[in-house]
């Protein structure tokens, strides 16, 4: 190797290194971007196009007819969609608030006993990992009118049987109970990790200053837990808003439309009534509602922060 | 530090014990039901002669496809988890170490957030049409692809958190020693992020194993997975409560195994986001 080429190599090395770095970072993100574009962005655009059309699928052939107003006029008279929206909101608010209260309480309680923490954590993992479908199947048997253990207990005490899933006024609450049973463990787990991670010095300092247990919880522990509570709240709200699986297994939306939620409504419009164009419009409306909620939440948080600052 | 004493300690213990009982009771009831005959279920007997009939019917019954469902579920969950982890880790690493312009990372992360918040059922219509058009309707491939994108947002966020904990000095040192960016990634980052990969992988696998709505709409026949199998027991006209309980117990097995052997990773995965 001659002297001149060695000098040239040295001069080129940073350039080559720079190019390699460029290459790696571009290639690294590419697979994820391609997957997301093909399977989420394109379907999303497709959804907007579908919402403007009437689509019929027959013998494997799809036929599109451009008819935007037809779908819109369907939407204006659709009380079932409105019911589903209200049911979803009710379900989300009820189940998430109960889960948060129980989860926070249990996490503080578990942090206050010296032994058995590992056991409690082990047990709580189980429901979190089990599929909503299996949970739905289990609770369907538990709620069974004729032979479910709940009604057996009522009968043993000489009380009348209850149609847990068949009475309009109770069905939604029964479904909420299953969700609370299924997901309080997750809230507990997140908050328990939060409690275990609290700075000991702060709590000791407050105690030395004479704070009693109630003051300690109210003024020190809960404010320090706020971020973990927020995470649990957001996680659970998002998932509760999507609820589908358990409801299909438990009630299928019934009795009547008592437990019909948004996801179930979309499924029925798409695959039972087979009106795909209108289903797409409902999907667009659902997405718009969620985006509006996200943006409002974000701006109100900013506004609160600005006001407090 | 919040220790209770005396009578309130007893009360606290009792409440916790009660919540453990409440959590486990439904599982025990279904376990018992899965060993009962249809008659014993209908009469609500507490004492009964245990039978393996339900499991036999689920696994070997002439009209049951459950073994096929199990095979499909394992395949879809394993393949989609492997793909999600690979493309998710590459994305998370370059995003966390700010190797992309602000615009690229904001658009990427913003879109994954929007997609994660949308109910899965909103995109079911387009997916159905697209996979029919591609001739992939009712195939495992379609399920794998959709499960990958459904899992991608959480996987990327979780792994970004784990990568944040790796000291950047280690990567700088390797770079000074002459490693290419890919070598830095493979020899420094990959070994250190392994616990994170296991945590994210466990969650992705469980999610895919449990996923119902996409399987129901894109793959309800030959490619049907375990949740579809359970739902079919619930929706047939003749009473199939025993087999349904048995199928649910079989579906729970991976969760049980993870609870016993992978607790640390599950807890890390589930609480990772909350503590950072």
From TrEMBL, chain A:
Its main location: membrane. One of its GO terms (cellular component) is plasma membrane. One of its GO terms (biological process) is transmembrane transport. Keywords: Cell membrane, Membrane, Sugar transport, Transmembrane, Transmembrane helix, Transport. It holds the Pfam family BPD_transp_1. The keyword Transport applies. It is found in: Cell membrane. Residues 85-299 form the ABC transmembrane type-1 domain. CDD domains: TM_PBP2. It is a multi-pass membrane protein. The chain crosses the membrane at residues 27-53, 89-111, 123-142, 170-195, 216-235, 275-297. InterPro entries: ABC_transporter_permease, MetI-like, MetI-like_sf. Belongs to the binding-protein-dependent transport system permease family. This is Multiple sugar transport system permease protein.
TrEMBL record, chain B:
Keywords: Cell membrane, Membrane, Sugar transport, Transmembrane, Transmembrane helix, Transport. InterPro entries: BP-dep_ABC_trans_perm, MetI-like, MetI-like_sf. GO terms for biological process: transmembrane transport. Residues 70-262 form the ABC transmembrane type-1 domain. SUPFAM superfamilies: MetI-like. This is Multiple sugar transport system permease protein. Pfam families: BPD_transp_1 (PF00528). The chain crosses the membrane at residues 12-32, 70-95, 107-130, 142-163, 184-206, 212-234, 246-266. Its main location: membrane. It is found in: Cell membrane. It is a multi-pass membrane protein. Belongs to the binding-protein-dependent transport system permease family.
